[in-house]
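Exercise 7b. Backbone tokens:
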């Protein structure tokens, strides 16, 4: 469906809806590419589920403030986030929204600053940030300059800027095998990085005024990634075990810092991000990979009551 170039809250609602639909369409490939941090074949599903939560929240939020819309949608997504990729997307979206709060329309410069804020926030919530992942795509997007030679603050400038973001994200995806050893071994690109490219591509198309626009470049990249993933699945590789534990818990900042350290001692892929402020602290979304559920739940339970709890097997057999 064609629209005029747009930069307001209604356009952002369309973006999240389109990003969700595109992620659903590409989920099989993203799942097949999923080898880091564990090969549990769910990156596409996790991202699609999380972005759907953001899209559904945005659809019912009655605000013309672009920043408020994206911030609240990000918070809603964080409460329902699935996996590393979904959690990082939610954190990123919330930070982007907070940077844009107070604006009824976006400009290339305001979005550039918002992308930088989202990139910094995503890096900050990880205990061990790794290049060659979704983080590298966020970093590439945050580094894109505002186009010159076009009217400052115009929708046309924003369109050209986001086209540049999509191009930079695509380039970042293509070099992920050079940055991460497991990807060099499999000869594939990172699933989370490719998923974030799908999200940025949907943003560029929506703001550009053509939601169903030319996807040939992205589709060609995904087709190539799918072929490589099929070859990689035929090769011998390690089988991973353990579980992913996710929950929400109310904590003071000090307790949250201590819990993050304690979880790092019993597990990996620790992510902790504040969702909303409470009376004497915050609601924190917690993510960790551990050998057994009790390894994480015992530590979390000593600090607070875990709600919205999910425990998911990381075994490939259960993927």
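Sequence design result:
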């Amino acid at each position: 469906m064609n629209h005029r170039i747009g930069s307001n809250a209604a356009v952002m609602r369309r973006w999240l809806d389109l990003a969700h639909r595109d992620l659903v369409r590409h989920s099989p490939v993203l799942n097949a590419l999923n080898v880091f941090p564990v090969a549990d074949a769910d990156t596409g599903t996790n991202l699609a589920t999380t972005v759907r939560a953001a899209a559904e929240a945005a659809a019912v939020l009655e605000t013309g403030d672009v920043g408020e819309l994206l911030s609240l949608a990000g918070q809603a997504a964080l409460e329902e986030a699935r996996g590393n990729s979904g959690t990082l997307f939610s954190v990123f979206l919330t930070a982007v929204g907070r940077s844009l709060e107070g604006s009824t329309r976006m400009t290339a410069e305001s979005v550039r600053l918002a992308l930088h804020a989202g990139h910094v926030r995503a890096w900050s919530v990880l205990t061990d940030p790794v290049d060659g992942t979704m983080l590298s795509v966020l970093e590439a997007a945050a580094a894109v300059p505002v186009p010159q030679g076009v009217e400052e603050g115009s929708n046309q400038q924003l369109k050209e800027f986001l086209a540049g973001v999509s191009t930079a994200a695509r380039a970042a995806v293509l070099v992920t095998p050079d940055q991460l050893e497991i990807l060099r071994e499999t000869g594939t690109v990172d699933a989370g990085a490719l998923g974030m490219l799908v999200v940025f591509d949907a943003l560029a198309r929506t703001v550009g005024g053509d939601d169903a626009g030319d996807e040939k470049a992205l589709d060609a990249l995904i087709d190539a990634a799918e072929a490589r993933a099929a070859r990689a699945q035929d090769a011998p590789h390690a089988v991973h075990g353990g579980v992913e534990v996710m929950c929400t818990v109310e904590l003071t900042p000090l307790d949250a810092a201590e819990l993050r350290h304690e979880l790092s001692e019993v597990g990996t892929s620790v992510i902790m991000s504040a969702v909303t402020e409470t009376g004497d602290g915050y609601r924190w979304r917690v993510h960790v990979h551990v050998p057994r559920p009790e390894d994480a739940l015992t530590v979390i339970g000593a600090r607070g009551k875990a709600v919205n709890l999910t425990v998911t097997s990381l075994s490939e057999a259960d993927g």
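Instructor comment: Confidence is low (pLDDT under 50) at residues 235-239. Residues 18 and 202 are 6 Å apart (CA to CA).
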